[in-house]
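Example with several molecule types.
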Amino acid sequence: MPRLCRSTRRAMGLLALTVCPLLPAAARASASDTPPALQAGACSVRGLMDDIRRGLHSGSASYQRYLRTLLREAAVTLPDAELRDAFSRETDPVMAEHLAAALVARSEREADLQAMDVVAQRALQDADPAIRAATLRAMRRTSALERTGDLYERMVRDDSPLVRQEAATNLIEDNARVYAGQYGPAADTAVAAAAASTDPAVTARILDNLSTEKVSAESTGRLVSLLRSDDANVRKAAVNALGGVPAEQMQGARESLLAMYREEKDANVRKALLQSVAQLGFQGAIPDLQRLRAMDPRLASEADAWIQVLGSGLQEWSLLLREKQRLQQAP
Amino acid sequence: MTPDSSHRSAAPLAGAPRRRALLLAAAAGAVLLGGVALLARGEDGGATDSGHAAAAELSRKAAAGGRGPGGPAGAGGAPGEEPPPPRFEEAVCWRELARFDTAVTLENFRAWAAPLLASGDSLVADYLTERLTELIGQDADRAAQVLAWARDAGPDEFEVLMTALRGSEAVHHAQVATRMLAQGMDATLDGARRAGILSALDTQKRFEPAALDTLTTFAKDPVAGEAGWAATRTIARVMKRDFEAKGQVAPYMDALLTIGTESPDEQIRYLALSTPMLSTPVLDEQSLARYAQVLTQEGSPDGREAAAHNLSVSGDGARVLELFSQSFAQERETCVRWALFRFAARAAGREALPVMANMALIDPRFQPLYQTFEQLYASGLHDFVRLWNSLPDQDPFGCLVGHD
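Resulting structure tokens for the full complex:
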């Protein structure tokens, strides 16, 4: 309570109970009417962190976005030692994430190439899983995949499910958003991490959301191995991933999938098999699909849908997927 | 507040890995569009970037960024030359911005934001835009107030106002959209202002027939100018949204083809003819026939290229292939021929190879390209997108930049 109010209350007794609450409001109204004394100045680590800490508890979402962008933009000209020191001392996961993002920004813009390592080390070593997850998030949609060695193979085996999922999200989003699915080594890193994970949910999630257009033969081999997983979701995701492998690996992938169909009992995995066979062969897959249709009456309508869509002659996989979805949604 | 790590400003010439990443990302983003990526600025584009000549040029440059691995690598000094050390501008931190954020209202926004806008700080301008969007919220009256300010706002403020309005929830109130459309049609306003207002309609989920008709009639008006260009782009963007959400495409396609064939402005015609490719609808019989007419009758090579692009996704690949075969023989523009050649593959896949071989006989410059396509199909590729990404050179005739 403001000092004025405390002294007023002492002097006025009960009457003050009604007056005092009004005073701050009036003062606020007055302050609100006065334009802020906006003044441009240099940024500092301490000042920005103070602003962000305050912004966490008040302020609009737009102001919060502004502050986090400002910190990243300012990072390249902020004192490196001060930034690293603030990061190493920070124990609040949200603030640590902001500082980690600033260090990553320095690395991305080549102001400090080693800054990414500092963040990666903390992701690996911090005792608090929330900090490990936060620092991983700070590396998202950056070139971290190329700069952090086997970080992701280790992070997908983290004790914390949250950390493992954050690692999976980075692998998915980096491949899709930074490399547009067109950079083989990044996709190989994701496949290696998926294969290294002992968490089936993580393995399945990575492979279900990864373009394998540029993966190596070694990665395709790993995917084929995962077809024998005990977990149906992992098998299904490996099937999906094999549908998109490079041209020189298509024939082998097709044979693996066709052979698997005979033994597979799970209907969802079989459904994925139909899709990947369609993807690998386009119109040329129709005879295979007709054979597979006869093997499992449960999936006859699914096979029919693929046969019909492939017969349309469309020459892009995304269009075939879209048209199949429309076909099956049609009343 | 949760940080994300999508870095706003481009790195100064980054090291090899980053360059590669950016190049590859650009390659995929521009896939297929070769020279006709007029909406490449996409959903993130500001509401007011409406100078259509400049935009067309920009889009060509954006498309040029889509070269494959064999294409020019972009910026860089002479071989062996050390890149200069990165130089960065100091970011600006604003004293009392927290208080601004807490106390700003719609009523005091213009006055309070003025010094920030005048500073030229783009970060704070983005913040002001988003803050204004929050202040407008779902309130139609507030949206109307902002729209009223747009009548006399200076260029920087106008951009903030319209971008904020465009992103607000209130913009989806029918009365707000109607008022914006009416103001966009107001001939007493200058062309850039009308263009900005009409561009801000591009977040609509759909257009009712009357609004679509108004925009179409306006866009093909000989005096529409850049506002007509903006109206056309808005139709295309709303078409994409409505198509993705509800599968609705026919009325928009009809509107764009009408503009694309009736506008006297070549840039507007081109925009109208090219933009359906953003939605990639499978052409129905009627649209196929109209685009076929464009392919043979449109005077602008860019327009004919756009027609070839759109015709390549239809339910009648054989008919399109025949059309492309005939057009190639009659076509004299290299870039249009290149469009007919590559989009023949998109229309019919490997079945197009005999037609493409014949094109290469007519024009021997296409012989090596034919061999490349033949090899790619022989490798087992089917998906045209992947085939396109595998081309050693996606721009063998320099059509992506500066041929117009």
